[in-house]
Each structure stands twice: as C-alpha cells, then as structure tokens.
Design goal:
With about 270 residues, the chain is α/β, with parallel strands linked by helices. It contains twelve helices and six strands. Helix 8 packs across helix 10.
C-alpha cells in the first residue's frame, strides 16, 4: 500500500514537472524578458563586459540609433533574450559578441513593436565566413531558413547589410522575414491580425510582383521575382531600408506592412509607432 502511494506521488510529481517544462518552453522568451527588463536581473544572465560589447555594436546600427533612450533599453534587452535562447554555431568563424549582436538585432528590429512576439521558429543559427553550397537548393547561398528551424547566414553579407543601411539589401532582415512567417500561428488569436495583414499585403502587392517578373527592377531587386515568398522577404528589406520611396511608390503595400509589424519606419520621433 505504501509503495502504491509513493508511486502515485512520483507520478504526480512527474506530471507537474512536465507541465511546468511545457509552460517554460512556450513562454521561455517572455520569462527571460520579464526577469531582464522588468526585474532587472540582467547581470545574472550576461556579464557587464558582454553587455557593453553588445551596446557598442548596437550603437552602430541605424535603426537603433533613431530610438529614444527607453526604446534603446527595450531593444537591448530583447537582443539579450534572443542571444540567450538561440543556439549560435560558427562554421569556420568565431561566434563573437559582434556577430551575435548584429544577427539578433535583425530579429528584434522586425518584432520590436509586437509585444510578446519572438521569432520562435528559429532554434539554430549557423554562421559561415562566406556563401556556402546548399544541397537543398543545389547552389551557393548567402542565407537560408529551413522549415526545421535552422538558419544559415554568411557573416560578411550580414555585416554588409548594416554597412549600407539604405540600399534595400539586408541578408539578416531577409532571412528573419522568412522566419517571422514560419513562426506565425494563424489559427491563434494572438497572430490572427498579423496573418490578416499579411494576406492584405499579398493582395496589394500582386501587381508589383508581376511588374518585377516582367523585368522592372526600378525599385525591388530581381531576386524578389523568384516567388511570392522571396518577394515578401525583399519587400521587408525595402520596408526598413527604403521606406520613404516605398511609401511613395506602393502606399497600399507599405501600409499593409506597417500593420504586420505594428510600426512605421518613417516615424522616427516616436520609436517608429504607427
């Protein structure tokens, strides 16, 4: 009888552990952000030296530079959470604070004004010293985002995207745009409005996509004509890097993306609020 009671207690304990682990897995990013941003326990998770290294790199990023002090603090803490919760692997390259900061900043830039939204789809980020051969697509790639939660990135091309912040080409933003869509759960109430806005963007952008396929590269680059998924990622790059021209040329597309990301890159005064 006693053994049965011990077994029952053990089974209940196991169920409680599994329940708590599931909650942690689902809410991991939110838990870390709460502890770092609101409880101010950042020093428990990352050294002050690393914090300063990350801030030094973020201060070189145009998007971050335009934020208020409050916005910068929020952005910085979101970057820390992403760096803690993603697995970075250097394939022939050292995983420095610089590399992790720039890659993490790409994800945070997209999700900056979407409360509680993290790009959860990506679990492993592999970084290479150059473009690499992909068996999946049968050619060299600078970046790749898989359905299995792995992202490949060429570090020189990531850096180049930030060195030229207004040319409409940013590899990190491009790949995170793919990962953003893969993270969405359109059947949930939390993501429903984002999915609706993406649908509106798809409808509004169809003429521009056809125009690009016909050879008009006066605004969007040729790679966007590959398919609608690549056109989406190219649009997101231009949305952040060439917003004024985007708004003037394709206002309906631009406004749809503002609603997707809950921000307006043209509104520099209020942390890109709509």
């Amino acid at each position: 009888m006693q053994n049965d009671s011990v077994a029952a207690v053990g089974f209940i304990g196991l169920l409680i552990f599994l329940f708590l682990y599931i909650i942690y897995s689902v809410l991991r990013d939110l838990i870390y952000f709460f502890l770092i941003h609101y409880v101010r326990l950042i020093n428990l998770f990352i050294s002050k030296e690393k914090q300063q290294n990350i801030l030094n790199e973020l201060n070189k990023i145009t998007y971050y530079q335009k934020l208020s002090m409050v916005g910068k603090n929020y952005f910085f803490h979101r970057v820390i959470v992403l760096m803690i919760n993603k697995n970075f692997f250097g394939d022939g390259i050292k995983m420095s604070d610089e590399v992790k900061s720039y890659i993490s900043a790409c994800a945070v830039q997209l999700t900056f004004r979407i409360r509680g939204f993290y790009i959860e789809h990506i679990q492993l980020i592999r970084v290479f010293p150059k473009a690499v051969w992909s068996q999946l697509v049968q050619h060299d790639v600078k970046g790749l985002t898989t359905g299995g939660g792995v992202m490949w990135l060429s570090w020189p091309d990531i850096k180049k995207g930030f060195d030229f912040p207004d040319d409409g080409i940013n590899l990190g933003i491009h790949e995170m745009a793919h990962a953003f869509k893969l993270t969405l759960r359109c059947d949930s109430s939390s993501s429903h409005h984002i999915c609706t806005s993406i649908t509106n963007w798809s409808i509004a952008s169809k003429p521009a996509f056809i125009k690009l396929q016909e050879g008009d590269t006066s605004y969007f680059r040729k790679y966007g004509a590959t398919n609608m998924e690549e056109f989406w990622a190219v649009n997101v790059e231009c949305f952040f890097e060439k917003p004024e021209e985007f708004m003037n040329l394709y206002p309906e597309n631009y406004i749809s993306l503002c609603k997707v990301f809950n921000q307006n890159p043209l509104n520099n005064k209020f942390d890109f609020a709509l």
